[in-house]
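Q: I have 422 residues here and want to know how they pack in 3D. Can you give me a structure?
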Amino acid sequence: MIRMKLLFVMWLVIIGMSGGAMADVYGQRAANSRLSIFLDLERFVDGDFIRQEIPLVEYVREREMADVHIIMSRHASGTTGATYSISFIGYGGYADMDYELTYWAPASNTSDETRRGYTEKIKLGLAPFMAASSAAARVRITYDAAPVTVDDDEVAVEDPWNYWILEVYGGGNFNREETRNSLHIRYGIFADRITTEARTRLRPYNNYNERNFKTDDGWVTSVAHRGGFDSYHIVSIGDHWAIGGFGDIFFSTFDNMKFSAEISPAIEYSLYPYQEATRRSITFAWRAGAGYYNYHEETIFDKEEEILFGQAVIASANFRQPWGNVRAGLIGFHHFHDFRSNRTELFANMNLRIIEGLSLNFRGSFEIINDQVAIPKGDLSLEEILLEQRRRATSYQLSGNIGLSYTFGSRITGVFNPRLNL
């Protein structure tokens, strides 16, 4: 009985302390004239730099505490660069303010140039909110006049490369010990052309991986070689439709593929206009084509080479909203020569805010696999299995992770201290 009374008294003390703390928090928020900002950033964005460069606002840990919710996402455009979409969503007295800015970062930018660029865009986006706040009297806007005497529209843009951007890459790594060593080499070319009307890619690539292990019977060597050529050309048709074609060449020792060549047209419909893709998109696509396949070893279907026809249907959804992020899709594929040769994949990535401070994170995928036409005939040796030198037959693949996180405490998150950041 005495223990129950003590527990009850302790519970009352905790509730009293929590209530006082919450009262202090909301009292401070009411008395604070600075805008409260919740930064909702992808991992490619330097949040610490933004907080350092824009100190005139207050950064909070949850969107429910904010006057302005900033959602920022990065959309890569091949090797040409990336577009950063910055959405500003107002709450409370700013609830009628909701708009989006974009920042284009060319591939030639350094990381510092890029972060300074999108930070300046955030400053511009916050200006209307500052003008409507009690801090407006302390804000000054400066403008650097451009040293031109004609309108931008009158200046003709001449591009000797016709929007083509090329990247040649190569690299490798090695590791050596007394009983084992490895060598990995990769090289290739990206050639991309992106305009508002179309986008094109041409990409040859090659990868070489070698691993050596010392045993009592001598050295065991595992070599994997993979490469090919990826290409596509996609054309925009209005705000909701796109058509295109894909052409691919592929070879791989692991996949028992000496040489393959595929060509397939495709069409896509977007439920929402493509201009809204940074915040929400639901798309449906169809792709069909033919391929020639030449195998290293005879397959379980007694084939050394063959021509196959197939089609795929893809449905996907992508939402980045104040309540969280969701990306999910369903892919179905089958060969025409035998409808039992098929594959179905369901995937989902979610980060959902359930209540203030509580978030659910989920990532998973499930595949039903019945189209492994390249599996080699015969049994694999223990050495080939352990060194993963050949792909093995499977009827499914399942992967995923799930987690909950709960954040509480101080509402302020704007302090940046890099000292002893090991």
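Q: Anything worth noting?
A: The longest strand covers residues 218-237. The domain at 17-138 is CATH 3.40.50 (Rossmann fold).
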